[in-house]
Amino acid sequence: MTSEQLKQLDASYICNTYARFDLCLDHGKGATCWDMDGKTYVDFSSGIGVNSLGFCDDDWLLAITGQAGRLQHISNLFYTKPDVMLAELLCRRTGMQKVFFCNSGAEANEGAIKTARKYSFDKYGRGRDEIIAMKNSFHGRTMATLSATGQEVYHNFFFPFVDAFSFVDAGDVAQLEAAVSEKTCAVMLELVQGEGGVIALDPSYVTAVEKLCREKDLLLIVDEVQTGIGRTGYLLACEHYGIHPDIVTIAKGIGAGLPLGAVLFGEKTASVLGFGQHGTTFGGNPVICAGAQVVLEKLNDAGLAEVRQKADHLRAKLAALPHVRSVSGLGMMIGLELDDGLEAKQIVQAGIEEGVITLTAKSRVRLLPPLTITVEELDTGVERLGRALARV
């Protein structure tokens, strides 16, 4: 089958919800992949932050295929070793108390929203159910997580949205304090607003949010779907800020290419959800959890230190590229602010033509390289991106 035939079949049979770039990929290894015509690309996207170990990591592949040959799935009404062992690893590494496994970041955020409202209901009764989120945020595409997303572009077509969400400007402590009322049960935020332009929150603001939550008995929910599992150079971006949320949501990189999300509960929230109050058919799937253990093993202290070193190397090189005004984000979660008049989508397309895959985040070019990318692959990708920028 040719790439043109594939694209024709796609147009005929797949729902037209994605503005695809003109690229048909066939296989990959590490941070390098090949299209159907044999051309190579350095991948600076990792499937929107999913392929934390790159393409087809040998140890990860061995773990998932080995588990698939033993037990590929069984109901959560029974015990399996991979999800229990993964839960223990996550709690030990993050300092959280309990884990609920699901299949995606949106589902993890749904679980966080339900938990926050139940915590407040159990303690204060009905009516204390409002969650304050940030403008410019993104928390998912389900009805509740769209309702929690602070971007008007997503608030269309699907009315009515879920009630009891309000929004404040990230960074404005006074505005947040004024928004808190007797109805507020939680504050929800991303430490780096990914879809909002790869913008890291100011540390002093995050500290003030945590302090306010403690004073008012509001749950602090941190959405680490994109920032978590080593993306910023630490296992959780919370470590950059020195905070201890009541709920942390993760997904993307923990599955290394397979669908896995999780809600991590702190001391205040560990016992909120009881029997029958939440659930999922596929959450904690043994094959995916076996692979996720490999992710955490590779992202040990030495592995995370290497991520930080490579991030510093990459960010310095990117800052020197033509038409790049600034480099935002944290660690290997990177946004490139471009000169006026340049469109991020235009640069992504030019990069594909030069052999490097990047993403967009509003007006910025977004880079989410595999955490295991080699320095050689980083340098090759930057060189190709530089050629793309020089063309425009």
Please trace the helix and strand order, writing H or E for each element: HEEEHHHEHEHEHEEEHEHEEHHEEHEEEH
Structural class: alpha/beta
What fraction of the residues are assigned to beta strands by DSSP?
Answer: 15-25%
Order of strands, main sheet, comes to 4-12-11-10-7-5-6
- Poorly predicted ranges: none
Q: State the distance separating the first and last CA atoms.
A: 33 Å
Mean pLDDT: 97
Number of strands: 17
Which term fits the overall shape? globular
The percent range for helix content is: 25-40%
SSE blueprint:
Elements: H1 3-13, E1 25-29, E2 32-35, E3 40-43, H2 46-49, H3 58-68, H4 81-94, E4 98-102, H5 105-124, E5 130-134, H6 143-147, E6 165-168, H7 173-179, E7 184-189, E8 192-193, E9 199-200, H8 203-216, E10 219-223, H9 238-241, E11 247-250, E12 261-265, H10 286-298, H11 301-319, E13 324-330, E14 333-338, H12 344-354, E15 356-357, E16 359-361, E17 364-367, H13 375-391
Parallel strand pairs: 3-15, 5-6, 5-7, 7-10, 10-11
Antiparallel strand pairs: 1-2, 2-3, 4-12, 8-9, 11-12, 13-14, 14-17, 16-17
Mind explaining what this structure looks like?
With 392 residues, this protein is an alpha/beta fold. It contains 13 helices and 17 strands. The strands form four sheets. Strands 4-12-11-10-7-5-6 form a seven-stranded mixed β-sheet, sandwiched between helices. A four-stranded mixed β-sheet has the order 1-2-3-15. A four-stranded antiparallel β-sheet has the order 13-14-17-16. The longest helix is centred in the first third of the chain and has 20 residues, at 105-124. The model has no long low-confidence stretch (mean pLDDT 97).
